[in-house]
Backbone:
């Protein structure tokens, strides 16, 4: 509006506006100037009313705002992807996870944990119809006490008979005990094919229940030896913390340890 007031055509219009009519006498120049100043001042007041200038406090506050706060000047339309194109994994099945879990489970089954080896021999006495089990030694047993040692002994069963339970002497503070003990199981030769030899290795504890180290189960006696002569056999001791399922019916008897 101020620019229009500087226009010669506008000024001419104002000068014409101060005349009451064409027949009235001209208004003095001082009155005309006063009227023009009044009109220009009134126009500036209207401009201030409709478009207030920013206050000093507002300008100072806006100047101290960080650049990131001036969100009105940032255009996010090009940065945000369409809502329909946003990827999501909710409710999506990932077959590779189940496949990996299955593979790990198969590996765990094939790799049974062992805890040392045991050496023994078998021989059948045809004259007395007796199976002779010779427990020779054990090797590389795990430590079961704070000193890094163990007090091992071996229990021997000829399954399915669980009433006849034999065991070696306890060997103190060793992980490689030498037992060298013979055990006799009366059994007819015809029944040997249905018998299983079960060896369980324990750590003796004077003040609490004995710790089971592991076990060996020989399902077929004739596969390990022809039984006509004594044959040395080495077997891995399979890790176990409780009595094998083959001995569950006699579990209560097994809890009564004797030396």
Residues:
């Amino acid at each position: 509006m101020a620019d229009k007031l500087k226009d010669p055509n506008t000024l001419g219009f104002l000068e014409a506006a101060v005349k009451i009519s064409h027949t009235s006498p001209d208004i003095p120049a001082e009155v005309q100037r006063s009227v023009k100043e009044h009109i220009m001042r009134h126009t500036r007041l209207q401009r201030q009313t409709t478009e207030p200038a920013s206050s000093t406090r507002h300008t100072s506050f806006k100047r101290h705002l960080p650049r990131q706060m001036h969100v009105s000047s940032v255009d996010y339309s090009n940065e945000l992807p369409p809502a329909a194109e946003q990827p999501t994994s909710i409710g999506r099945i990932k077959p590779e996870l189940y496949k990996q879990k299955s593979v790990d489970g198969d590996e765990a089954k094939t790799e049974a944990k062992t805890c040392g080896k045991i050496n023994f021999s078998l021989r059948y006495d045809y004259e007395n119809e007796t199976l002779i089990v010779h427990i020779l030694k054990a090797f590389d047993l795990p430590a079961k006490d704070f000193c890094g040692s163990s007090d091992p002994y071996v229990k021997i069963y000829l399954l399915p008979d669980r009433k006849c339970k034999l065991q070696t002497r306890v060997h103190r503070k060793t992980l490689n005990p030498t037992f060298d003990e013979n055990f006799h199981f009366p059994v007819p030769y015809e029944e040997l094919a249905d018998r299983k030899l079960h060896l369980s290795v324990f750590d003796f504890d004077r003040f609490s229940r004995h710790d089971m180290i592991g076990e060996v189960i020989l399902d077929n006696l004739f596969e390990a030896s022809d039984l006509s002569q004594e044959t040395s056999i080495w077997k891995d001791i399979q890790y176990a913390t409780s009595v094998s399922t083959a001995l569950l019916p006699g579990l209560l008897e097994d809890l009564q340890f004797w030396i």
Residues 2-55 form one domain. The mean pLDDT is 73. The chain has two domains: 2-55, 113-254. The longest strand covers residues 114-125.
